[in-house]
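fyi for ur records
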Amino acid sequence: MERFITQKVLALTSSILLHKKLLVISHPHPRQRNVSSLGRPHAVYTPDEATAVDFADLAIIDLAKYATPEGKAELVQDVRNAMSTVGFFYVINHGYTQEQRLTLISKTRRIFDIAEIPFTVSDQEKQKYVGKMKETGSYQGYKLRQYWHVDAGVRDQIEQYNMHTDVNTKEHPEALRPFLPEIDDFARHNHFNVLLPLLRLLALGLELPEETFVEQHTFGSPLSDTWSTSLTMFATIRDAHIEILSPHDEVVSSQVHYPRRCLKSLPSSYPRSSSDEEKTKNVWLKGHTDFGSLTLLWSQPVSALQIMNPEGQWKWVKHIDNALVVNAGEALEYISGRFYKGTIHRVHQPPIDQRDLTRLGVFFFGLFNDDIKLVPLEQSPVLQRIEIVRRTEDSLAPTMGTYRKARIAAYGQTTLKQSAEKGVEEEQVAGVVIRHYN
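which gave:
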């Protein structure tokens, strides 16, 4: 799998902690624009209208507690509970500031500015950097619009640019090259300051040695194809999506496309017709689970991400300023014998008051090293006390590398078969039955 940082135009940040709760929150509307660090204006949102949305109630993990033994012990239980029940949670106090008092420019906003850059280049230049997903099983490069089949003959309106955690592994569009040192810093921050602490907490939650999962996630290693940066632009009436990938483990960070400040303006929209919305029931990416270990989504204010709770109900994921939305992927579920849950989530058309807003998201997708076999860690005392759930026989289980390549090559390209369960379609990838939900 590839590690990549992904920004998604529609708030694709995922975090979940089940609780049925109908919340009424104010959704942002552009009222004025501030100049960004790259010379272009930022949209500034004010709560002008409120839309009733049924939000998931997710745990909030405060990484500031990680600094003390007492706080760390508390986080072990909190992360364990969140991942064993819902599979989503928020992370706060992760080290990137929302505002820096001296410059009034936040690190978080800065990376969103940079995420816009790949979408400002010409279509001709994009073709030079198109990813070869089916041939290589890697997202590195551009994933252009209409590559994935969504449903009923409708194809996606999502554009991505994906980068390896080793940002120098491949050549990038010229406009992006001056920003590679900042992207590298951002990838390292996601990996060392967020991903690894969470992996330590997850290992301790299984009563395993603290470094168990850390040793299986090597930064920038050729052993894996983790996405460090992914820029994603989702297109609604006016939305687009980009992703920047990273090459070692399947860690991906994603950025949603914002019109770039110093460069030419981006296309105003990649409209989706009312007919396509009807055919897909307003779903932009059908329900699925990620295939890596952990996904880190940098929260942004336009809603689109929904998760399925244990009762089978779709709940919206709420935006929290400068928070990360974290969810477990299939690889972590397999290795933990399904003690940690890979939660089903999808991308939906935004609420009506947000449908004319451009969505930009930033993601970091973590994956185990390619040589790690995806079988339950039976040495875990926790797994020895519960019933282990396997998706395939241990002897037939794929490695992370085999699974990553097969999942990337197949996604949105294969003909799905209707499951016996209503609203569920299936395919077999690397010997494992993969389910898609609508």
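The radius of gyration is 20 Å. thats all i got for now
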